[in-house]
Amino acid sequence: MPDPEPVHHRLTQWYRHAQRDLPWRREDCSAWGVFVSEVMLQQTPVQRVLPRWQEWMRRWPTPADCAAAGTAELLQVWDRLGYPRRALRLQQAAAAMVERHGGEVPADPDLLRALPGVGEYTAAAVACFAFGVPEVVVDTNIRRVHARVFAGDPLPGKTYTAQQRRLARDVFPDPEIDDGGLACTWNIAAMELGALVCTAASPDCARCPVAQLCAWRAAGYPEPTEQQRGRGQPWAGTDRQVRGRIMAVLRQGVPVPRSELLAQLGLPSASAEQRARCLDSLLSDGLAETDGEQVALPGSLEPAASA
Ligand code: SF4
Questions:
Q1: What mean pLDDT, rounded, does the chain reach?
Q2: CA triple 26-33-145, angle to 5 deg
Q3: Which end of the chain is more exposed for a tag (fewer CB within 10 A), N or C?
Q4: Where are the domains of the chain?
Q5: What residues contact residue 260 under an 8 Å CB cut-off, 6+ apart?
Q6: Closest atom of ligand 1 relative to the 203 alpha carbon
Q7: Residue 23 phi, psi dihedral angles, 5° rounding
Q8: In ligand 1, which atom is closest to the CA atom of 144?
């Protein structure tokens, strides 16, 4: 395995001039802005997140603003970022910040992890990027960079294994250096290299700052095994696609009769049973509501008139 120190040095130097100017990375971005970005960026690319993040922060610049927002409005602003349960969890986390932390994002990774919907990755990323706490951050891009540079593997596979966790810790810079500054820059720099240069499908080794140190390159680019490829589920025909279409109709903000909603999805291959199952799952996730006939975003149906 290559010595991590020169990799740290080259990669963090490269990051200083190659990094993208993203609003949640600017010095004046609040910890809440970083928190929102980390939730939105899970499974959604930066270009799709940018306008949604800006709109979210314009409407709800603090956890208290978000906690007080209506669910239908949250889901409309979330728009097509995908996995809309994240919008509800973001609001639940905001409410917990108001209740437990005086309306502030906590800096302690343990307190962050205790918030609703916050997992290991988000807690580490927010602690590190918002507060400079030297936590080991590992996302898909970082896993791929670790796999290639240090393990000589073409791809890391779909699952985050115990071995990869050990590797991430082994190659992590000393948290004492620069008061944790090197460790935090290392996290973001490895993430940026994976996003911009060392991409899954076409790594651009000619402009890679650590090309001379990369174990996969040195080994002559061995092909990935099936397990390393870890192919994802195709999108077309999945319940995720059907749920996404239903949410797109509901986000128009007008209650729709159930039968009409299920008929207008424009997905001829989706069976009646799949459509009904997907709608029921959205209802039970709290992403939609129904009075038995009409379906709408939560909080959008008129209360039944009293006799
Ligand atoms: S040399 Fe190529 S494969 Fe290795 S880290 Fe750089 S871009 Fe990725």
A1: 92
A2: 65
A3: C
A4: 239-296
A5: none
A6: 7
A7: -60, -30
A8: 8
**Do the Cβ atoms of 12 and 185 come closer than 8 Å?**
yes
Checking if the pLDDT of 268 tops 90, the result is no
Q: How far is the CA of 297 from the centre of ligand 1 (A)?
A: 45
Q: Whose CA is nearest to atom 4 of ligand 1?
A: 214
User: Cα(139) to centroid of ligand 1, in Å?
Assistant: 17
**DSSP assignment letter at 25:** G
Tokens 């437990």 -> residue:
100
The structure tokens 């979210």 sit at 56
Q: How far is CA 106 from CA 12, 133, 135, 138, 180, in A?
A: 27, 12, 14, 20, 18
Tens-digit pLDDT profile for residues 90-116: 999 999 999 999 999 999 999 999 999
Helices (H), 208-301: 215-218, 226-229, 239-250, 258-263, 272-284
Q: Give the integer Cα–Cα distance in Å for 210 and 193.
A: 10
Q: Which fold has domain 239-296?
A: Arc Repressor Mutant, subunit A (1.10.10)
**What would you measure as the largest C-alpha separation in the chain, in angstroms?**
78
Known catalytic membership, residue 27: no
Q: What's the rounded Cα separation, in Å, for the pair 283 and 278?
A: 9
